[in-house]
Structures are given as C-alpha cells and as structure tokens.
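Input record (one chain):
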Amino acid sequence: MRILLFAFAILLMTNCDKTEYVTMIYDETFCANKWSTTYDEQNEAAVLEDIEDYFKTTYDLEFKDISLTYQDPSIVCYACSCTSGTKIFVEVDELFVSILQDENFYLE
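The corresponding structure, as predicted from the sequence alone:
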C-alpha cells in the first residue's frame, strides 16, 4: 500500500509542472499600442523590450517566447488605430489568454 501511495504522489508531482503554452498574435498599430508611444519598425529589439516590460509591470506576466514579423498592410492608412503590418507573436501560459485577449491579442 505504501508503494502505491508513493507512486501516486510521484505521478501527481510530475503532472503539476506541465504548463500548457499557446501562441497569440497582435496586429500592431502605428501608435495606439499601450506599451509604446512611438512606432519604430526599424528597431525590433526595442519594440519587443517595450512589450515585455509593459506586460511584466502591468500583469507580472512573462512570455516563453516573443517575436514579430512584418508584412505590408493591405490598406494604406496612417491613423493611430491603423495596423502597421507588424504582427507580434507571443507564446504564453494558457492561464493568461484572457488577459491578452483584453489587450487585443488573438489565438493563432
């Protein structure tokens, strides 16, 4: 009986550490992003750092991975709410999906 309880305890401990990650996407705008007041497609590292800092200080949320890609937007528009063509990809614990959805990210 002791061996069975020990095996069960080990099984529970190994299953508790399995974090499920999901990829979410954000269509960056020219200037309506909460993490940055300026748009700078030339400085990818600064943009990614601004995003990470915003979510760390606002929600104590850290990403497993973060990256971005650029595609020319299909509609030419330079208003703050218009998308810049940059898509931000984050890999995050599924527990934070609702927070990111509130920030206009969507599931891949």
